[in-house]
Amino acid sequence: MDYQPILPLRMIAFQILFLLVALAVESSILRQRLRFGFKTSVQYTLAINLAAIVVGWTAFLVIEPLSPMEIKSQMISYILFDRLSLNNWSAQIGATICAIGLASFLVTFFVKLKGLELIMRADGIWKLEEEDSRASKRITRDERYARARQGKSDAQQALSEFMDAVIQANAASFSAISLLLLLRFLVTREAA
Amino acid sequence: MPEFFDDLQKQARALLWPDQYFAWQTLLLLSLFSLLIAALLEAPEDGSFAISTLTTLSWIFFTCAVWWALSKNETEIKLPGADYSISAWVTGAVFCTFLFLSREEPHWRWAICTWPLISTTIKALPHFITWELEPHWPKKKDQPMLVMTLLINLILTSWIVFSFRVQDWVENYPSLLANDFDNSSFVTDFRVDSPDRQIETQGGRLLDNTADAIYKELNDQPWYQTERWLYTRQDRLEAISQDMVGAFSAPEEQVFWRMQVPDLKRLPDEGYLLTLRANWVGPVAGAQQMQLEKTCKILPIDKVRSVEVKPNEEPPVSTFTEVRCDEKSPEVQWSDLRQRVTGGE
Fold first, then answer.
1. Global pTM?
2. What is the mean pLDDT of chain A?
3. Cβ contacts (< 8 Å) between B161 and chain A: which residues?
4. What ipTM describes this predicted complex?
5. Given B147, B148, B191, which is nearest A4 (Cβ)?
C-alpha cells in the first residue's frame, strides 16, 4: 500500500490556536493571582501548557491501539469525518464524552499544578513548604494544636491560594476552548 | 592557467586540510577515507563484513563531522528571527539517515518519528557532558531553553506519530478512502480529485469471490440439491463469506463488512434471483451508508442423462442447476441510512 497524501494539518492549526488562547487566558489569571511579571507568567504558562499537551498526546497514542473496536471506530469516525455514528449507543456516547472531559480536566489540572510547582522551585520563588517546615520546628505542640483549631496556617493558606489560581486558570482556558469548539460546531452545521 | 589551478589547489587545501589535528576537517577526511576503503573492499566476494563495518564507521565520522562543523564554527544555522540554533536538527537528520535509512530496507517511519527526539538529545548533550567527557548539570540560564526544547520536540513527535497512525488507519481499512475527508477538523486531504478516480473497496472483491464460491457449489448440481441449499442459504452464505473475508488483502477490515443474507426472488418463468449485498458498517463521512450489490440468477435446466435406455423410450431427463452472475464488478452505492433502517424492519 503506497502512501496516501492525507496530512493532519488542520489538527496542527487547531492545536496552535488553542494553545494561544489558553496562553492568553491563563497567563493573565496567573499573573494577577500569583503576582508574576508579564514575561514570567507567559513563560510559565507556556511551559505547563506544553507539558499538558504532551501528556494528552501520550495518553491518546497509548490508548488508541489498545481500545476495543467500537471505541476505535468512533475515534476514526470523529477524527476523519468529524462525526460520531450515533445509531446504536447514543446514551453511552454522551456519558463517555462527559467522563473524558472530566478526566482530561483533572489530569491537566494536576499536570499544571505539579509543573508550575517544579518550575517555581527551580527558579527559587517557591516558598511555601520551607516556611512550613521551619515553623513546625519552632512551635511547640500546644501551639500547633491551637493553630490547627484556629484554622489554616499561613503556608496552608498560600498553598490553597496557589491551587485556587491554577484551577481557576485551567477552568477559564477550558471554557474558552469549549466555547470555540461550540462556535465551530455551529458554523459547520450551518454551512452543511 | 597553471596559476589558476595552483590557486585552486591551495584554496582546497586550506579548506580541507586541518590546521591542527583536532579539527573537523580531520574527521571529514577520515570519513572519506573509510568510504574509499569500503569501496575498495567491495571487489572481492568475501569482504561484506569489512564493508559494512567501514561504511558504518564512515557514517559515524560523517555525523560527527557535521555536528562539529555546525557547532564550533560561524556556520550555525539560526532560526529566523530568534537567537536559537537549529544545527542540532541538521545533525539529527544525518544521524537518523545513518541509523534507519542507510540499510538495505530503509525504515522511513522510524527515521522520521525519532528525528525530533534524537536532535533534542544532540542539542542537550553538550549541556550535560563537557568536552572532557565529564558529566555536569546544565547551567541555570540554559535550563528553561532545554525544557522548552524537550517539550516542543515531544509535541512534534506526537504529531508525526499521529499522522502515521492516520496512515495506518487508511491502510488497514482502505474502504475509508471511498469517503471524502472535507468535514474533518484533523486531516487535510491532498489526493488528486479526478472524476475517474476508481475506488476499489474490498466489498466488491468480497461479493465477486462469494459469487464465485456459489457458482462452484451449485453449478451443475442436481436441482433438488440446489433447492435444499437455497432453503438453508443463511448458514451456507455465512460460512462462505467467513472464508472470503478471511482472505482480504487488508484482513483487519473484515469487522466492518456485513454480508446481508438476501431474500430470494422467484423469476417469472423458473428459477430464482439471488441478490448478494455487502454492507459497510464502519465509519462514513455523511449520513449515507456504503453498500454493494451483485445479483446471481439460479436457473434449472434440463439435461439428458447419459444412461443406457431402450431404443424406443425417451431418455430420462433430470434437472440440473445453472448459475449466472453479473459479469462486472459491483460498484459502490450510497444509500440513505434512514431508508435502510426502515427498509430492514
1. 0.79
2. 84
3. 61
4. 0.85
5. B191
